[in-house]
Specification:
The protein has about 280 residues and is of the alpha+beta class. It has 7 helices and 15 strands. The protein has a 6-stranded antiparallel sheet. It has a 6-stranded mixed barrel with strand order 7-8-9-10-13-14. The structure holds pyridoxal-5'-phosphate.
Length: about 280
């Protein structure tokens, strides 16, 4: 496997960073995850826009987006990734010594890392739907920045696995916000609901695609908060993300949702999503 690190294409085993990298010391960095379908990057412009916003949010000076796009495409080629694959991009505020919280000198080089690897589509789970738990949202107030500081997300996903389910939904102030690595939707009174894109969720690229599919296909939809107590009577619940696409939820905290089976609207959106991906040049 060939990866990209600070201007060089290297075998993965030869890619090393300093232990003084601020990504390692402070989680001082941002990332992106892009799906590659048949060797083509999905909504790459949107991912690059979000990457720029994340960098701006953390005041990391880096604007060489063409470098990232080129590395992503070249790694897909070099690693022969003709089917489903993921491109992972991470940029940190670079290395400085001695360790100090405040930003390093302005001329400090950022660390740029890109890798690409095959993924197995989660078709079996998309067919049956997944069980989830709810968990208190312990994250900071800038969840709209795709920062590598993911400890609450790590703990939430492990809590789910320890509970014998697939994922966890973050709940803050009685509002079900999003999954540990996905956006969250409910179908209530035949309307597809998802949280407005504010500071308390990550503005998902897949979320936007789902809303656009709703719009184009006359499926009623609204961006508004989903309260925890609405989950038990919701017609359907589902998650969206780059790797999950549209993932039905069939159980929350041990309680069955939509009769324990993926709902009609979720199914429709799964089909529309597949058709949309297949239609891309
Ligand atoms: C917290 C969180 N919310 C939502 C998403 C979904 O975003 P996207 O559709 O861009 O993958 C992710 C993806 O990793 C995430 O980590």
């Amino acid at each position: 496997m060939i990866v990209y690190l600070n201007g060089k294409y290297l075998p993965r085993e030869q890619a090393w960073i300093s232990p003084e990298d601020r990504g390692f010391l402070f989680a001082d960095g941002v990332y992106e995850v892009i799906h590659s379908y048949r060797g083509k990057l999905f909504h790459v412009d949107e991912h690059m826009r979000r990457l720029k916003n994340s960098l701006a949010g953390l005041k990391i000076s880096y604007s060489n987006i063409p470098e990232i796009r080129e590395a992503a495409l070249r790694l897909i080629q070099e690693n022969g990734l003709k089917e489903d694959a993921t491109v992972y991009i991470q940029i940190t505020r670079g290395t400085n010594f001695p360790r100090k919280h405040a930003f390093p000198p302005a001329n400090t080089a950022v660390t740029v890392y890109v890798m690409a690897y095959p993924i197995t589509p989660r078709d079996p789970e998309r067919e049956t739907g997944i069980p989830v738990i709810t968990t208190p949202d312990l994250r900071w107030a800038r969840c709209d920045i795709k920062s590598v500081a993911l400890l609450p997300n790590v703990l939430a996903q492990q809590q789910a696995i320890d509970a014998g389910v697939t994922d966890a939904i973050f709940v803050r102030d009685s509002v079900a916000l999003e999954g540990s690595a996905s956006n969250f939707f409910a179908v209530i009174d035949n309307v597809v609901l998802t949280h407005p894109k504010t500071n308390v969720i990550l503005p998902g690229i897949t979320l936007d695609v789902v809303l656009e599919l709703c719009r184009k296909n006359n499926i009623p939809h609204l961006e508004k908060p989903i309260y925890l107590n609405q989950l038990w009577t919701a017609q359907e619940l589902f998650l969206s993300s780059t790797t999950m696409e549209v993932m039905p939820i069939v159980q929350v905290d041990g309680r069955s949702i939509s009769g324990g089976k993926p709902g009609k609207v979720t199914r429709k959106l799964q089909t529309l999503f597949k058709e949309y991906v297949a239609s891309l040049p």
